[in-house]
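Anyone else keep sequences and structure tokens together like this?

Example one:
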Amino acid sequence: QVQLVESGGGLVQAGGSLRLSCAASGLTSSTYTVGWFRQAPGKEREFVAAFSWSFAVTSYADSVKGRFTISRDNAKNTVYLQMNSLKPEDTAVYYCAGKRGGITTEGREYNYWGQGTQVTVSS
């Protein structure tokens, strides 16, 4: 059974940093991808970043390039999203998602989702 558990959200001032964690279990396929998505109130869910576990390939949304970094800890089966230079427009619920196979930015292609963690950036 696949399980994704996010942590690390919170309230931060603009310009600050947060690190989100996604503890992944059950993704036993030889190739799988873990991604981060976010959804702000009244807006559609959007892709943030993704990491292909087997190929160590990453992908970022243009809005977060240069500010966010996705990485992994193999020993802990955990994917991190380091968020720097946060802006009020980064405020959203952030979701970790998993899929077998390579990277895609389409949320509908991810089969497994965490419960979400709130990130609030004050101006």
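And example two:
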Amino acid sequence: QVQLVESGGGLVQPGGSLGLSCAASGNILRIYSMSWYRQAPGKQREWVATIADSGIRTYADSVKGRFTISRDSAKNTQYLQMNSLKPEDTAVYYCKADIIPSGSYRQLQWGQGTQVTVSS
């Protein structure tokens, strides 16, 4: 059974920085893309960034230039470095992986989410 576990959320002041990580555990055959999403109170979940297994990175316009996604394929872990944070970045952040578990089929897995609050 594959699990994604996020960590690193918390409270930060506007203009500050925070780093998130998401580790995939279990018997994994292959991970394709890894992504971050977020959901603010009363809003729909929105895509934030994706890193392909090729290393190509894409970002939502709202975070471009401030957030950096990366991954360590040897550790099945992805990261999100968030700089110049704004109050509107406040949300629960979720990681997602396009994954093939050993002995199973290709599927999308989600983490449980981690809260990020940007406030003075």
